[in-house]
Amino acid sequence: MANWVKDYLERNPDKVSRIHSRARGSITFKEGNYFVTECLGGPIHYLDNGVWKPIDTKLLPIGVEYGAPGLNTRIKKDGSVRITGSTGKTLHTQSTDRMGIFNISTKKFTSLLTFPTGVVSDDCVIREKGNYHHCLRLMETGLRETLTIDVAPSGGLDDWAVIETNFGTTQLWPDGWLSAFKKADHIFPMPYSIDAQNRPFPMERYARYVGGVQYLYTGISVSELSKYTFPVILDPDYLDMVVDGFIYGSSASYSTARSTSSVYDTTYTSFMCGQYYNTGTLIYDVYRAFTKFDTTAIPAAASISQVNKKMVCVADHSATDFDVQIIKQDWSAQDPISSANREAAYDNCLAGTADDSIWRNTNGMAINTQYASGNLSTAWVVKGGYTYYSLRSSRDYNANEPTGLEYIYIASQEHATGAYRPILTVVWSYSISAAGGGYTLTGQAVDTLKASKVLSEVGSYILTGQDVAFLKGVKLVAGSGGYSIEGQVVDLLKNSLVLVEQGNYIYTGQVTDLLRSFLVAAEAGFYILTGQDAATLFTKKIICGDGSYVTVGQIINLIKDSKITLEKGTFNLSGQAVSFLKNYTLQVEVGEFKLTGKGVTFVRVYRGNLIGFSCPIPKGRLKV
Asked: Structure pTM?
């Protein structure tokens, strides 16, 4: 997989024009009256100068190395790997050069082959020799390293088939077995292998400092390896974050297998869910899976109306069918899953509460096909964070002892086919974000508050409307008081900003853009603005002190581009003229216009002693 976003949009071309926003692990679309956010577990975008751009893992030459924009792993054809910081500084280096046999008694390594210089293919550097195929694949979350072995190597009881990795000249660990570790802000989990029948089995690491070089030998005993079906894939990786995985219990006792974990994996391209009884070894396995999704793009003010989980089964071994239950389990305290915390995650999955719907039953399920769950709990989604779930078999939950195969593999976030990766689809719209107080929003349109945000203090706020986008793009910042915004038109307050202090503010109207681009900055008082024509107060600004002000009109641009600066008093402005006070000039049609007031500056051109006038004025111009 090179570019998840590109692949998704190519499969859904109708959505390209409806992209609303992007985030690190999600993409949001405007679908009619709602927002639909597709959330993944890992990153699909990187931030470039404030713009989210799709991650493309296709390897591009960067000097003598290969990498991709937005990712900090660099790979060479010789198998060298480097992790860089934000400034390009080297934080970690490693190199895989040889494969061979490590004797755990003598602690000696014998090389079976040296990997040749590789070739670049899409997101991989591939090196092949004989029965061995080595691949370094760039991922959105780090590096996946695999060694595919076609034929089992020979060796004694103390011999292990291993990959030798050079970690540099500094001794990092004492000689001995090494569990999962962190380096350069990346996780190096315990490695795992998988055979041709998709059976996973753990590997081990041994650290040894030899000749001034720190080596890690990663592999499995030759005798154990011979039990599996070839080809076998050895899979030691590193990640900058754990996205999903599975844990299983394994025992000759079914009750022990259910209650006690044995093995975990967080790097493979699929995870397991279900149960298994091996009639040859008489061992029970119980598999439980763990997923998380990046829901940071869902705003705190969002009202979530629907949630569905989409997944793909890539291998079905359910001779006995079962429900795949989705569990509301917050395993963030065990993230990343490790040997130290896997038991808590495993036990909590069994004890956890099932969500409102299952993913699906395994009966009649096609592989490599995406299925969506029923509707899940909208309250479980974590707005502005990560949302965690787990998966378990209904037969596991009911303690139905397996008699054979009853498990499946589900594609993980590491799967090379982007269309197979798990997705959490969240449908939402905006709501109010407000402090203590009473807030009432009524209307018959789906998007009554489309893309709007209300920030307010204690008070009473009433917003009503019957059209889509009633308050589209509106931000209301208000202090204590009562505010009423009413209307029956599209975009009544489109792109307007209201900043008010204590007082009563009433906006009424029946026209489009009645208060378009309108700014009111007012102190305590009572302000009434009414109109029945488009742009009655178009681009108008009123700055006023204490008092009562009434502006009434029935014409276009009654006070277009005008500014009124008033002192205390009562002022009435009425008439039928275009641009009644435009630029402080009376431009009037035939009619009668009354200006009354007691303010000092209201009619200052008349030396401050004119209280008011009333007279018919012929068509023409009169400067005040």
From this structure: 0.72
